[in-house]
Write a structure and sequence with these properties.
Elements lengths: L1 H22 L4 E2 L5 E2 L1 H32 L3 H20 L28 H27 L6
Antiparallel strand pairs: 1-2
Helix pairs in contact: 1-2, 2-3, 2-4
Length: 153
C-alpha cells in the first residue's frame, strides 16, 4: 500500500506542477457554475485524489487476495481485472440494483461531488465507508490465507 500512496503522490505532484506550468493556476469553475479560488480549487483536487487513493486501495486489496491464492502474479492481475469488470457489468443491470450499494465499484465516480458548489457529502462518505470495509476485509483475508501458505516449497 505504501507503493500505491507514493506513486499516487508523485502523479499528483507531477500533474499539479506541469498543469501549473502549461496552463497557469486560475480560479476553478465548479460543476454548479460558481467560481472558487485557486487554493480552494487545489484543496478540492487534493480531496478528490485522496478519494481516488481509497478507491485504488480496494483494487490493490483484491489483487493482494488473488496473489495469495495463485502462484502467478499475472493470474492475480487478470483475475482482479475480470472480477472488477464482471461487477461493473452486473451493477449496470437494473435487476442487480440491490447489490450496487454493497460493492465498491459503484462508488468510483462519486469523486465528482467534490466539484459541486455545495459538496454532496452523503455519497462520498458512503463510498469511503465501503472502500474502508472492502479494503480491510480483503486485506485481512489475504493475510489469513498467506499465513497458511507454505512459502518455503
Amino acid at each position: 500500500m505504501l507503493y500505491l500512496a507514493v506513486g499516487f503522490g508523485l502523479m499528483l505532484a507531477g500533474g499539479l506542477l506541469f498543469g501549473a506550468l502549461f496552463f497557469e493556476l486560475k480560479p476553478m469553475v465548479t460543476l454548479s457554475g460558481t467560481t472558487v479560488g485557486v487554493w480552494h480549487g487545489l484543496g478540492l483536487v487534493l480531496l478528490c485524489c485522496l478519494y481516488g487513493l481509497l478507491a485504488m486501495a480496494c483494487i490493490v486489496s483484491l489483487a493482494l487476495l488473488f496473489s495469495t491464492l495463485t502462484d502467478s502474479s499475472l493470474t492475480a492481475l487478470i483475475a482482479t481485472i475480470v472480477i472488477y469488470i464482471v461487477v461493473q457489468v452486473l451493477i449496470s443491470f437494473s435487476y442487480f440494483d440491490w447489490l450496487a450499494p454493497w460493492v465498491f465499484p459503484h462508488y468510483f465516480l462519486e469523486y465528482v461531488n467534490f466539484f459541486r458548489d455545495t459538496i454532496y457529502w452523503d455519497p462520498i462518505l458512503k463510498g469511503v465507508a465501503v472502500f474502508a470495509v472492502w479494503s480491510a476485509g480483503l486485506t485481512a483475508l489475504a493475510y489469513l490465507l498467506f499465513r497458511r501458505k507454505d512459502v518455503l516449497s
